[in-house]
Each structure stands twice: as structure tokens, then as C-alpha cells.
Write a structure and sequence with these properties.
There is one protein chain. The protein is of the alpha+beta class. The chain contains 17 helices and 19 strands. About 50% of the residues lie in helices and about 15% in strands. The strands form seven sheets. Strands 4, 5, 6, 7, 8 and 9 form a six-stranded antiparallel sheet that branches. A three-stranded antiparallel sheet has the order 3-2-10. A two-stranded antiparallel sheet has the order 1-19. Helix 6 crosses helix 14.
Length: about 650
């Protein structure tokens, strides 16, 4: 319909004719060519080659290789020792050790009140993954590489058993977008791993490309030596003699989506969208990397770079000082013909020179430089001490120093490394979050996980546990979805993952034990009751197997309590028996007293009667004397 007709209909209020939608066939996703992928990889290799060589030197300094081959040849030519006093390795190891003292555990927080109830389930799941993968060891080795190379990298993948696996890779195998400037590589448009593998191993993984793999080994192109399996002088895409080939696992943004491509120099072996999803369900790259420092040319480096200067000064200053102290200079008279013999005798501690006085004159001009070299050596050591953990940070102070004081000194000393260690913690957090995303995506079947390491009280949790109807004994069906209902389903949990960092527990525990011991000692000396039980003191200690000791003490207490209860029961029965005997004796005594009283009263009555009778007889006797006995009266016998 023409536009003027549409306008006329609109003025009349009639709906305008709608355009018929054009039906299009779905477009096929155009894959990047092999040459385009190789261009990305070789471009990164070329631009990052100098930075990798410098990082390789940093690794050499850590490994005690601190003199170049040319320097060693020069020193050997003048009999000067190539001394190495490595201050870099103890410094790196000390930082790793201090960081490992503090425990770092993943913790989940629900984003809604409903999810908060399942936060403990998510936390237990992540800690289970952490324990199974021994991620503590991975973090320790990764931190050492991070401090030396300035890059730490890892991957979170799912194996055939749907177990979450942490995988670390060497920094020299990792390449990235050379125009990336962020420390976490968040602005990189591609990165990947360039790893050397045997021809048989690659063919086993990709049997359909056996011919391409073989052809790639036979025809290789030179690139850069820093990506070689063991870099030396020459490097290529493949090693024809050893039948080894470079395999690139390449992650790149293609049409706004992360893709994974595996290729060799002659063929693409695998390509497609990344199988792993982020928190929003979008494909993501598996590589998780972090850098310590980034210079203005986008080169990554670690803390060893700034230690190399003082380390060279220490080595060369001490080597030169030792050399000057071990050599002698003399002035010889022209009459001395055998100079080599004089030189050999001077080198001996008991050398003898056959010459007249004045023909051999010792010189001391070279020894005048020794104090200057020693002063430079002292300055270099002071500079090195400023760039490494102090003795207080690593706990090399006096034993009388309290645990709190040690911890505060360590925190103050580690403030200089806060930027680097914070970047490392950020990498750990991203690894845990990626692991949780893998759990949500791939843990969709019932699964038992152990959530406690207590051998005496193991506890397990079931993920995706079916809800059973108690009436029928069958799984309940969700009326909304028509699917069986389950409990502890990670896919339904919306969580924020953080890392829970705890300080050096050993130092705090020792400090608490020391304070409790002092309080108990003060109470005993003052004759006061103890402010806490002896069990509390043992719990605060770091004694090995203290739980067994506490259990034994508890059993003894229970046994003693039972014995005391039995003894109390026996005493009670004895007391009751004694009371019964006393009551019986009291009753007997009362009866005897009453009997005695009755007999006494009876005797008193009898005495009264006797006295009355005697009184009456006396009256009768007096009457008989005065008036004579009455007739019939019986005489009274006296």
C-alpha cells in the first residue's frame, strides 16, 4: 500500500497496513579462520616476549642463578669467585608462609531470606570441593609463582564424574591479549594456554584429526622460545625429532560470546561456545588469572623485579671484596727474572721468595678499595631488608614476646605487601565463585558430600535429595513443574560467595593459654578458688590430641562421681541404721525410766502405809499402857 493511502487511513482513524515480516533462514555462525587464531596467538607471543624473558630472569634469581654466563666467564678469567647469597628466596618463602598461616575458607550468603536458609548447604559444598582438590596446596604454589612471575592462573572444570576440579597452570604456558591493562585481565578479548604434548596424546584426544596432527609436526614455523616446552635457543610450533606439538587452548570473544577453540599449527581440533556458564547463564572463559603489577607498557611482573638490583649489589660487592682480600700486588726489581715463581709463592700462605731486600716490594693500593666495597655491600643489604619481611613478621623475635605483639608486628609489616596479597585474595575469591557456578550447573543428581572432618562424629549431606511422600513412599511431584521435588538443589540457590579470612590461630591460642595460665597461678598463690576449671585451660592450649585428654578426664570425673555417689549412699544407710539404733535405745531407756518411776511410786506408797501402820501401833501401845489391853487383842511382839 502506498504511503499516501496509509496517511489518509490514519486521519480517518483506520489502522494502517502492517508490513509483512520477512522470513529469514537462520544464519550459520561464521567461525574464525585458523590463520586469524594463529595471528592472535603469535601476536601475543611477539609482544609479550620481552616481558616473559624478564619474568624468566626473576625465576632464575629465585633459583640461585644470579650470574649470567658472560659474567661467570669474566670472573673465571681473573680467578674471582661467583658468590651467590640469595636473599630473594627466603623473602618469597616467608611471605608464602605468613599467608598460609591465616585460614581462608569460602562462605555463602543468600541473596533472599529463602536462600539464606540454604547458605549453609552452599558453604558446605564449596568447602567439600576445596578439600577434595587440596586447594590449599594449589594456592601455596600459585602464590609463589604470583610473587615471582607476577601472574597466577587457574581453571575450574568438571570431570566425567561431575566433580568440580581446580586446575593450575604455569605462567609461561599462559598467553593473553597484550593490550589488556587490568590486573584481573577483565578487559582481555582473548587468552589461552600454549601447551606442548606428545603426538600420541593429542591423537588419542582427537582421533579424527590424526592426519592433521601429523602434518602439523612435519611442517612447523618458528615463533618464540619462551613458549617452548623447555625454552632454550630454538622454538617452533612442533618438534619433529621428539614428535611433540604445541596445542593451543584458545578462549576468545566471537560475536559477543566466549568461545573455546583448540588448534594446532595445521588444523582446528575443537571449536564452539564455552560449555561453562557464569552466574547469569552466559558462556564464560575457563581461565581465571590475576597479575601483581602492570607497567605502562602492559607488562606484568612480581615483587622479585625490584629485588634484583640489591641482590646483584650484594653478590658482586661481596665477590669483589673477597677477591681483593685474597690477592696481592707487588713491585718487582727488574733483576727478578722469574715472575711466575714469585706470583706462585705469594699465593701460598707459607711461600718463600729468594730475592734480595728491596727487590720485592708489597703494594696496598688495591686493599684501599675494600672498605668502599663493604660499605656498598652494607647499603645493599639494608635496601634488601626493606623489601623483604622483617624478623618480627616471620616470628624470629625473642620467645618472651607475646602472641598479640607478634601478630600486630606481622600485620604492620605485611602492610607493604597489602596490594599484592589483596590481588591474590581476589583471585582465590574468583576461583570459589567459578566453582559455585559449576556446582549450580552440573550438580543435578543426588550426591553425598562429607561436611565434617571429625572422625568420631562424621556428618554427610545429600545434594538434590528427593522429597519422599510419607503416605505413599514415592517421590513427591511439584505441581508447578511436574517434576519430582528435591531438597538442597544448588540450581535453585541464589548465593553471594565471599572468603572468610581468619588470623593466625596458633598465635592467638598461645596468647590465650598464657593469660589463662597466669590467672590460674595468681589465684593459687593468693589462696583463692580458681576462676575457671582446669578443662578450660586444656582447651585453650595447643596440646596434641587434647580432646582425648579431655575425654579421659571426663571419664575419670564420671567414675569418681559414681564412687562418691556410692559412698554417699553407704554413708546414708549407715546413718539411718545408727538413727534406728539410737531410737531403739531411747525407747528402751524411756521404758526403763517409766518402770523405775512406777516402782519408786509403789515403794513410796508402801512406805507410807508402813509408816501409818507403825504410827497406829504406837498409839495402841500407849493406850494399852494407860488403860490396859482390850479383850481379844493380840499382843504386839517387840
Amino acid at each position: 500500500m502506498r504511503p499516501e493511502i496509509d496517511s489518509f487511513l490514519n486521519r480517518l482513524g483506520a489502522p494502517a497496513a502492517q508490513p509483512t515480516p520477512e522470513v529469514r533462514e537462520p544464519e550459520e555462525v561464521e567461525l574464525p579462520s585458523l590463520e586469524a587464531l594463529k595471528t592472535q596467538v603469535t601476536g601475543a607471543m611477539d609482544l609479550l616476549d620481552d616481558a616473559r624473558r624478564e619474568s624468566g630472569k626473576d625465576q632464575d634469581y629465585y633459583d640461585d642463578k644470579q650470574w649470567t654466563d658472560d659474567e661467570i666467564r669474566v670472573l673465571e678469567g681473573r680467578n674471582q669467585p661467583a658468590l651467590v647469597f640469595n636473599h630473594i628466596k627466603p623473602a618469597i618463602n616467608a611471605i608464602v608462609g605468613i599467608k598460609e598461616r591465616g585460614r581462608v575458607d569460602p562462605k555463602a550468603w543468600g541473596r533472599t531470606p529463602k536462600d539464606q536458609q540454604a547458605a549453609e548447604v552452599a558453604t558446605d559444598s564449596l568447602r567439600y570441593v576445596d578439600d577434595v582438590n587440596r586447594f590449599t596446596n594449589t594456592k601455596r604454589e600459585g602464590l609463589r609463582s604470583f610473587l615471582i612471575w607476577g601472574i597466577i592462573g587457574g581453571m575450574v572444570e568438571i570431570d566425567q564424574d561431575r566433580e568440580v576440579k581446580f586446575k593450575a597452570f604455569r605462567p609461561e604456558e599462559y598467553y593473553y591479549d597484550p593490550y589488556s591493562r587490568e590486573c584481573d585481565f577483565s578487559d582481555a578479548r582473548y587468552d589461552g594456554l600454549a601447551k606442548w604434548m606428545d603426538e600420541d596424546a593429542v591423537t588419542e584426544l582427537y582421533p579424527d584429526h590424526a592426519k592433521d596432527i601429523k602434518a602439523s609436526i612435519d611442517a612447523s614455523a618458528s615463533v618464540s622460545e619462551t613458549y617452548k616446552d623447555r625454552p632454550n635457543r630454538a622454538w617452533s610450533w612442533a618438534d619433529f625429532k621428539k614428535r611433540r606439538i604445541l596445542v593451543c587452548e584458545h578462549y576468545h570473544l566471537w560475536k559477543g560470546t566466549w568461545h573455546k577453540t583448540v588448534f594446532v599449527s595445521g588444523a582446528i581440533l575443537e571449536h564452539g561456545e564455552s560449555a561453562y556458564k557464569d552466574a547469569k547463564g552466559r558462556p564464560k572463559k575457563c581461565t581465571i588469572t590475576q597479575s601483581a603489577y602492570v607497567d605502562r607498557e602492559n607488562r606484568r611482573y612480581g615483587i622479585v623485579r625490584s629485588m634484583r638490583g640489591p641482590q646483584d649489589s650484594i653478590n658482586k660487592g661481596r665477590s669483589k671484596a673477597v677477591h681483593l682480600l685474597n690477592v696481592r700486588q707487588v713491585r718487582l726489581d727488574p733483576g727478578v727474572t722469574d715472575q711466575d715463581e714469585v706470583r706462585n709463592e705469594l699465593a701460598k700462605p707459607d711461600g718463600v721468595i729468594m730475592a734480595r731486600e728491596g727487590m720485592v716490594e708489597p703494594l696496598t693500593t688495591h686493599t684501599a678499595l675494600v672498605p668502599a666495597h663493604i660499605e656498598l655491600l652494607r647499603d645493599a643489604k639494608d635496601m634488601m631488608r626493606r623489601q623483604q619481611p622483617s624478623p618480627g613478621i616471620v616470628g624470629r623475635q625473642a620467645a618472651s614476646q607475646s602472641g598479640i605483639a607478634i601478630q600486630r608486628e606481622q600485620e604492620a609489616g605485611l602492610a607493604e605487601f597489602a596490594l599484592v596479597l589483596s590481588s591474590f585474595d581476589d583471585w582465590v575469591l574468583r576461583m570459589y565463585r567459578s566453582a559455585w557456578e559449576g556446582i549450580k550447573q552440573f550438580w543435578d543428581a543426588p550426591k553425598y558430600i562429607r561436611v565434617t572432618d571429625d572422625e568420631n562424629a562424621p556428618r554427610f549431606m545429600v545434594m538434590n535429595e528427593p522429597v519422599i511422600d510419607p503416605m505413599t513412599g514415592q517421590p513427591q511431584i511439584d505441581p508447578r513443574t511436574g517434576q519430582p521435588m528435591v531438597k538442597n538443589s544448588p540450581a535453585e540457590m541464589d548465593m553471594d560467595i565471599i572468603i572468610d579470612t581468619t588470623p593466625d590461630v596458633a598465635i592467638l591460642q598461645q596468647e590465650q593459654f598464657r593469660v589463662l595460665g597466669e590467672l590460674m597461678g595468681m589465684a593459687i598463690q593468693a589462696g583463692q578458688p580458681m576462676p575457671f576449671s582446669f578443662d578450660a585451660l586444656i582447651k585453650a592450649s595447643d596440646l596434641p590430641k587434647k580432646q582425648e585428654l579431655l575425654d579421659s578426664m571426663q571419664q575419670n570425673k564420671e567414675g569418681s562421681g559414681q564412687q562418691q555417689q556410692e559412698a554417699a549412699e553407704v554413708g546414708k544407710r549407715q546413718a539411718l541404721a545408727k538413727i534406728a539404733v539410737d531410737e531403739t535405745n531411747a525407747q528402751k531407756n524411756q521404758a526403763l525410766t517409766m518402770k523405775t518411776k512406777a516402782e519408786t511410786e509403789k515403794l513410796a506408797v508402801e512406805i507410807d502405809l508402813t509408816e501409818q501402820q507403825m504410827h497406829g501401833q504406837k498409839v495402841q501401845n500407849v493406850h494399852d499402857i494407860l488403860y490396859g489391853p482390850q479383850p481379844g487383842a493380840q499382843p504386839v511382839m517387840h
